[in-house]
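Subject: mismatched residue count in predicted assembly?

I count 746 residues in my input, but I want to confirm that the predicted structure covers every chain. Input:
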Amino acid sequence: MKTFDVIQIVLFFGALIVLTPILGKYMAKVFSGDFSDQLSKSYWNPIRYFRLFEKIIYKICGIKPNELMNWKSYTISLLVFNFIGFLFLFFLQLIQKWLPANPQHLGNVEVALSFNTAASFVTNTNWQSYAGETTLSYLVQMLGLTVQNFLSAATGITVILALIRGLKNKTTNDLGNFWADLTRSIIYVLIPLSIILAVMLVSQGVVQTFDNYTTVNTLEGAKQTIAVGPAASQIAIKMLGTNGGGFFNANSAHPFENPTPFTNFLEMFALLIIPMALTYTFGKMIGSVKQGWTIFIAMFILCIVGFAIMLYSEYSNNPVLQHAGIMEGKETRFGIMNSVLFANITTDVSCGAVNCMHSSLTPMSGMIATINMMLGEIVFGGVGAGMYGMLIFVILTVFIAGLMVGRTPEYLGKKIEAKEVKMAIVAVLAPNFVILAFTAIAVMIPAGLSSILNTGPHGFTEILYAFTSAAANNGSAFAGLNANTNFYNIMLGIGMIIGRFAIIIPVMAIAGSLSAKKIVPQSSGTFKTDSGLFIGLLIAVILIVGALTHFPALSLGSIIEHFLMLSGKTF
Amino acid sequence: MLLLMTILTGILYTLLITGIAQLFFPTKANGSFIQNIGSELIGQKFVSDKYFWSRPSAINYNPLPSGGTNYSMTSKKLRDTTFSIENNFASKNMIYNKSEIPNEMIFSSASGLDPHISVQAAKLQIKRIAKARNIDETKIQEIITKLKEPRQFFVLGEERINVLLLNLSLDKISK
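Triage response: the counts match. Full output below for your records.
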């Protein structure tokens, strides 16, 4: 490791930690409805205009933000809205040939691929079976992908808001208004941040144009067709919304998506900032900032430890290739450290954008990337999704702690009883079921095996990684696997839908049931959930549940590959 | 609601960014093109002895679509191609100690379009280019010093050099 690596790491996380409370506090105000009710007088205050947009949207759509919903109608609104978004994106791809803004005259997308891409973007996964520059028209990228980038991120935020209100409420059923929450997260948070980021990206060289692809005569006289497009606007929300679906096939490794070290810094920053800030928002909204920081610290520890292992592994010597710090699948301008940092946080945060090819990471760092996703995307996690995923583990932790001392478990004054624990278990098991069962199916049939690029244990990891990425709604890939087949498009699409909604529905049920309970006052027997002990216990539960479920699968893939690499074996 | 959001985030937002981009950063927003020779940001393939070479590319610098090799660290194919690229680079550039060759010159990039190489990788190619063009080595050295890109804001990323810009400057001093 070089001195400059350390400086960059400190700078990066330092900047994030400083901004977490600032953005966190702002979001807490937005989602409590503080800004909607008060009128800002200054013409220079952007809030004034956000508020104006908000009111216009309410008016056109007939939304009454003060009409509160119980958990069932909140969930149904969410599901219906997502389903219609899914249908729209699905059909849009099927007919892109006949629609405008398609200067390359790309043909209609196949049904299985359309299904996969639609499922992928609605569930905030953004898995790429398609190759942006050769599959999708500008119109689909704008109306389909960019829109779902916003909406799926906003959907994640609405769920965590409902859960927070469930924790805070005293014996009511009102979890807020889904439409108001959705509108606010888009108008006040996602669009303003995206505009700032997109403009900064363009200033560094990210493309934003509706022109045709350009064919040039290279210096040596060859022809090179260079793909361009309205990329910056989509990349901004792809990072901020922890979506990760690239405009181009190579995603954030492509020089037009991520041209300089500064854009790389910005993109990494953008992908972590909202999930980080949401821990603060959570603390602020439930009335104890310390509870928010407790969760932040637990997440941060998991993030840093994983990163350290990856970095160590990448800088170690590879006996097969007889080099250390191998640049295969990495870009010169980023170097080893920035590639590994990106790979770690993108799998922590369910973003799935990549600036290096994960398939060419060392077995150990590839394994950490896989584990990051297997834990359920709770190390900061997707926008909203990470926070509610983490709260599921918090519920399990207080439950286990309660069992140890023989006392009814509580979290923030709410009794955690059979219903909450059952729902939490469903939410934990559903993605793990997809990972293990679907991988098992894929390795047993020819349609699953024929897509592998690398043979040996790495081939198994390609499949395991794909289903893990789908179930965890991450979207990054060991891209050697040719996932654009009917089998993978359909299986991965189903995996993504289960991985998203089989968590959201139980979480909403928990929110509903907690909301109806009264808050019991703290006593000397209450297990403190903002202490160092709790952080340790929470991390232990996460690792036991998440990692041990997958240890057998990992040992068949990455772990055995690591030892075979050390003994110099190739495949 | 969906329709409204589609108009807002899909059309208005995209058009707003396009407008700002085209107004303030037209060259960059359109792809940083250098006449009709290529884009500053998109690497090109160079095989001639008269030019600096770019990194190996999984897609042979054809950007439709971009991507890497995705070979694993235990891939026999990767090991074999790596060794042959390394040998070729060493012999063509008259390098006796192969461990001098920087890592990125023998391994393929992630995008397949990496426009940069390290300064060390450029320096190793001076001897070959000077011979092929029949010019003084110090002249090439000067170009490298001039075009070297430092870490951004003194800290971010890695020190590097743009291969296409290097070769354009080479063509300026000798045809």
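Strands of chain A lie at 214-217, 223-226, 317-318, 323-324, 410-411, 414-415. Marking this ticket as 'not a bug'.
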